[in-house]
Amino acid sequence: SLGKKKAKIIIVGLDNSGKTTLINYLKPPKETLSEVTPTVGFKVESFKQDKINFTCFDMSGQGIYRELWPEYYSEAQGVIFVVDSADKLRIAVAKNELEMMFEDPGIRDRPVPILFFANKKDLPYALTESEIAEQFELDNISDRDWHIEASNALTGEGVTEGINWLGAKLP
Ligand code: GTP
Ligand code: MG
Ligand 1 in contact with 65 (CB < 6 A)? Predict the structure, then answer.
């Protein structure tokens, strides 16, 4: 109805980075399952934040399902890319997925905003936002708005701050 903003977004990132846990934090409590399990394929979720009704495609990050991500890029008004800040061994794998995303026509040709969550900030030796930004060479992004927020999806730290940034960038 009038005055109600709607937004369709997509959340991607490697398996185990915390995407579903992040979305669960944003959902109404009664709709949240206590145990989060690896996503199979993808799941469409809804939540309301800062007067925006979000529809979110929660994609599986497992290797065999990553090829599904591009199928939904062109519909998304915004992207959330989640990184496990403590998974240093796979930072190069995550960067490679990010580069492929930027090369996909569904993203390349549309200047949708991108929110990065440097998730699992609570873990020892987690990389900081600026360390991840440096690894991912985010300063080279010049064709769209982007933002990186450190988060703990288990407690919600940083989560609303990040989503509110994204919400403000949406049409
Ligand atoms: P796929 O669906 O397989 O792509 O994974 P996902 O990115 O949705 O990850 P999921 O939300 O299933 O979380 C994976 C594991 O990380 C779970 O055991 C979560 O409890 C844990 N986890 C998520 N966020 C955090 C965090 O901020 N800190 C810590 N310590 N653990 C987290
Ligand atoms: Mg998941």
Answer: no
How far apart are alpha carbons 119 and 91 in whole angstroms?
Answer: 13
Residues whose CB is less than 8 angstroms from the CB of residue 136 and which lie 6 or more positions away in sequence, other chains included: 83, 94, 95, 98, 116
Q: Is the pLDDT of residue 30 over 80?
A: no
d(CA 143, CA 127): 26
The Å distance, Cα 109 to ligand 1 centre, comes to: 31
Are the C-beta atoms of residues 8 and 107 closer than 8 Å to each other?
no
Name the pTM for this structure: 0.97
Mutate to test the pocket of ligand 1, among 11, 22, 34, 36 (most ligand atoms within 8 A of CB): 36
Pick from 104, 70, 94, 77: nearest CA to 13: 94
Distance CA 97, CA 66 (A): 9
Residues 97, 15: Cα–Cα separation, whole Å? 12
Give the 3-state secondary structure of residue 35: coil
Question: Does residue 43's CB lie within 6 angstroms of at least one atom of ligand 1?
Answer: no
97-124 pLDDT per residue, tens: 999 999 999 999 999 999 999 999 999 9
